[in-house]
Amino acid sequence: MIRSVPQFISFATFLVFVLSCTTSFIATEAYDPLDPNGNITIKWDILSWTPDGYVAAVTLFNFQKYRHIQAPGWSLGWTWAKKEVIWNMVGGQATEQGDCSRFKTTLPHCCKKTPTVVDLLPGTPYNQQYTNCCKGGVLSSWVQDPENAVGSFQISVGQAGTTNKTVRLPKNFTLNTPGPGYTCARAKVVKPTKFISSDKRRVTQAMMTWNVTCTYSQILAQKTPTCCVSLSSFYNDTIVPCPKCSCGCQRNATHPGSCVEPDSPYLASVVSASNKNSYTPLVRCTAHMCPIRVHWHVKVNYKQYWRVKVTVTNFNYRMNYSDWNMVVQHPNFDNLTQIFSYNYKSITPYATINDTGMLWGIKFYNDILMQAGPLGNVQSELLFQKDEATFTFDKGWAFPRRLYFNGDNCVMPPPDAYPWLPNSGFRQYVSLLTLIMTCLSTIAVMYAYA
């Protein structure tokens, strides 16, 4: 029994280590190293009291640098703490009224214990609009368009209490866009918001304010990646494709209709018959099966500059990507000289390092990436100035380190598959199986002659 004590201690230590690693992973799965402080903050300001409740302004701030919410937009849900009802809304609407049978005269807008609210569509009559409303739930990213990164609506709540001490905060906030991906923390009471009049001569404040912070996790949004990267260069004829099965594999035998052949005579009927309410991609049949492919081509080498061509191709028959954006990490972005047909802004998550840039389309020109087909791609070229201390074409230096499309991390080819310089010599490829067998053979020989 004495001998078993050290073994028990060792096992307990190992178990604690495994659990701590697992806990750390779960806690940080929503952490984005390129946007560590990015989140969507929901601010709930009580503006005035009513006989049985209050009138509040609810505002969504998208503080994420490059992740936006595109059509069909956001939907915000919560659970009331008591028996609250929504009497009226301006700038938004609840998706369901619920059971309002207990009201005999005036019916509330929504009686559900767990309401879900959506934004109104563009073109809503002016008497139903509210500040920053009526965008169809679309929120731009903070870097791309900060003025349109805010959405709001006004809500009149009944049976809720009429003082700061009797009002109870809603619980279990959810934010869908329209699928999952965001996890919302508990509502937290903060200092009341102050409002400045248009002439800036008077300041008023809310009766009460609480905030809810929602963070994004790609793992929650979709189990498989949504984009991949292919590579090529002027100094090598090899075109490195997206890794096979980057976003899934073709399984037509067991899952018919998972992809569409571009030369199929029934292509139009298949696409038109697809479920319009489904946000699952219907992609063109490819080896990678990704809705989006980004191709990075090292095009020209000048004496003091070098040029790259970037092409984004849409393989998704179900979606037009509006207001798309792309984030690229490369050490030469600190010397970007010129960019053609894209907008650009540097993103510096860490003040001393300038190696990340955000690219997006020009409004009314190429800001909408059309669905799969002849118009389903956008192109641009980047001109970099060489830094003699770091510049090289060797060992894949000219290719991006990391690339995001619409906030999702894209699958990169393995480093040993990158195009290499002609004078780099013969490259030997050693498979994993060969390496394992070599190691096992070495161990067997050592054991035999030990």
From TrEMBL:
Pfam families: COB_C, COBRA. Residues 226-419 form the COBRA C-terminal domain. The chain crosses the membrane at residues 429-449. Its main location: membrane. Residues 1-30 form the signal peptide. One of its GO terms (cellular component) is plasma membrane. The keyword DNA-binding does not apply. It comes from the Eukaryota. GO terms for biological process: cellulose microfibril organization; plant-type cell wall cellulose biosynthetic process. InterPro entries: COB_C (IPR056900), COBRA_pln (IPR006918). It is a lipid-anchor; GPI-anchor. Keywords: Glycoprotein, GPI-anchor, Lipoprotein, Membrane, Signal, Transmembrane, Transmembrane helix. It is found in: Cell membrane. PANTHER family: COBRA-LIKE PROTEIN 4, PROTEIN COBRA. Belongs to the COBRA family. This is COBRA-like protein. It comes from Malus baccata.
